[in-house]
Amino acid sequence: IGEWTLPGARFPLEMARDADAGSNSLLTYQLTGNPSFSLAMKERPGGVNQPELVLERALDREKQSTFELVLTAVDGGDPAKSGTVQIRVNVTDANDNAPVFSKNVYEARVAENLPAGSLVLRVRATDEDAGSNGQVSYFFGNVPVAVSALFTVDRESGEIRTAGPLDFEGKNKYIFGLEATDGGGLTDHCQVQIDIMDENDNAPDITVLSLSSPVPEDAPIGTVVAVLNVNDPDSGENGQVSCELSGESPLSILASPGGSYKVLVLAKALDREEAAFHELVLTASDGGDPARTGTARIRVTVLDANDNAPVFSEAEYTVRVPEDVPVGSVLVTVTASDTDEGLNGHVKYS
């Protein structure tokens, strides 16, 4: 009997036979077993009563799929004799139950750069119906192309796997819908939320925004020499960058309040006569484990200032000459040098 059958439906039952005659063969019927069914008699030609099974209540296969009843036939003899037969009622399934997801929202956290085919999560929907009515298939809902390009869903198992590379810096959260459909076309829907966790897959990048070179050697301490932008698109500690200058540098680093801009300023006086230029290497390191680094090379040329006076090669020149030396004779050659550059180092005598 189908579970969609309405109460009041009748189902003919097999009649009993009694070989006696007269009142000894007059039969009555009784039904025992379940209040969902009752017994009715239908008179057939010749005055014979046909027993019929009457459905009293609506059936629900998911609550009870079978019923065990006993039909008893009793003759009219004295003493009466009886015979019994067992009636098994199997309830046929109707697609009266839609699939139901175990959760309304499924959440997962996965690391970026997972290999294609990696398992992200598994959804599950159940259907109380039987046969094809209870077989559930899984599909994407109306999702953007970006989602279907990055994820796949197995129609039978409900496993969601990666189909392409995930990039935290491109997008760190995906929310989309899934649909479960049974063999009869009934559906249920759920939401999937996948959070992408950052991996330290980006090294700091240093960009020189401005550079003042050459720098006068008499520039005061604190003079701004360069402005740099240091960027790491990773998040958390993976994106927190610290910077340092290599070697004995005349510059120091000042960080902007946001931390992404670095200002190089003079930390000590310059002396072109000691070093005409400075080759600096700025190293930026993030807080990942292991850390990633980025470098930038900066050349600062020192512009000469006239900070050195000429110096004679001798503090005193003593010359002995005869009194009759001709006019115009060279008595002595004096030399003076100046360590400055260009005109600042060009020496004149008077």
TrEMBL record:
Family matches, as SUPFAM superfamilies: Cadherin-like
One annotated GO biological process: homophilic cell adhesion via plasma membrane adhesion molecules
Membrane topology: Single-pass type I membrane protein
Domain of life: Eukaryota
Keywords: Calcium, Cell adhesion, Cell membrane, Glycoprotein, Membrane, Repeat, Signal, Transmembrane, Transmembrane helix
Localization in the cell: Cell membrane
Protein name: PCDGD protein
The species this protein was found in: Calyptomena viridis
